[in-house]
Model the fold of this input.
Amino acid sequence: MKPLLLLSCLLLTPVLLQAQAKPLAQDYRIVFHNPDPERYVEGPGLVRLDDGSLVAVVPVVPREEWSKERRATQSVTHILRSSDGGQTWMPASQLPYYSAAPFLHDGTLYLLTNKGGTKVRNDDLLLLKSTDAGKTWSEPVTLFQGHFWNCHTGMVKKADRLYWATDDLALGNKRGPRIIAGDLTGDPMNPKAWRLSEPVPFPGVPEAMTNPQFDKLSSQYLEPNVIEVRGKLRVLMTVKPKRQSTAGLAAVLDFEDRGGPIELRFTQFHPMPGGQLKFCIIWDEQSKMFWATANSVVDGQGAFDWFREGEKRGNVRYASGLGGNDRRFLMLQYSVDGLNWFQAGCVAQAGKISQSFMYARPVIDGDDLAVIARSSIHAPNQHDADHATFHRVKNFRSLALKLTPEPEE
Done:
């Protein structure tokens, strides 16, 4: 028996050594495929309608080489709908915008959108509505004139008001967030129902938080989420210190709404897994926790030559951060305070540096988490995505530990 047992162990050892953890929702469905190499899929949006169907918002815009001359006239946002839980997607409509973020109010679908700009990448902030699940849309109303942009990040509904945030691109490298507050007690399509805070320019990252090796690279913050933590309204933002050479950092800002002008204030930088790239935070009332999709980095400062080699071949974009722009691992994490995060697992994993699952938007769908991602499957590089993909994380709440303490006796 002993020789036979030893032989069995030897035969099983290679299998055990090769065993790997599996992502939670690697088996994706294609929401949209863009085969045009001169355009790419931007940050998508997702919303669940009252009847249980899902509506996806997929902007497709000119790549950087042609963006300045084409973005104002050739940017298209595709609206798609799924009535079978994301298994199949049917086109509903198209709109001539560079980016769009949907939200639902009293059964009506609304869309905050940006025009493609000429002198600056994006222009005015517009609002449209649809009463037939995205098949047809109202004429747009201009909420604010200027140069704004954001993809579908976290929003908060509180006391009949909607809070979101956008980047003000007019500030250039110091682009800063601005709070958008909408009064939902009347007609949201009335521009007078909306207020916009003053921007908070990027304060800069302290030198001690970055590696001097990357001093010549620029830093910025962008893509704000709005969350509510026990009655307190906060903004969490992506931070790219020295072109993402320091990963896992977010900016925290705070504001109050007393009915007048909204004052947004920078509070601090704080660790955030995946904070170097767009992340999206939503609140789940059932678990009483925040859930976020974000991208984890494997080699943030170029200990390996993966990014250098990819850049030489022309199939990696923005590699100057040497690894911090890794977009392969789309992660799911949870938190009770919006600052300290526990990992629930990897939603999806791309194989090559030139591939990605990124810029995700999660939506609660019963016991599951429905996720749309901007994905480079067969794209020119990891940034200029050719797909929007759909992922379903089943029974997502079961992935979380109990974070609240037991009462003291």
In short: Helices lie at 2-18, 64-74, 306-313. The longest strand covers residues 220-229.
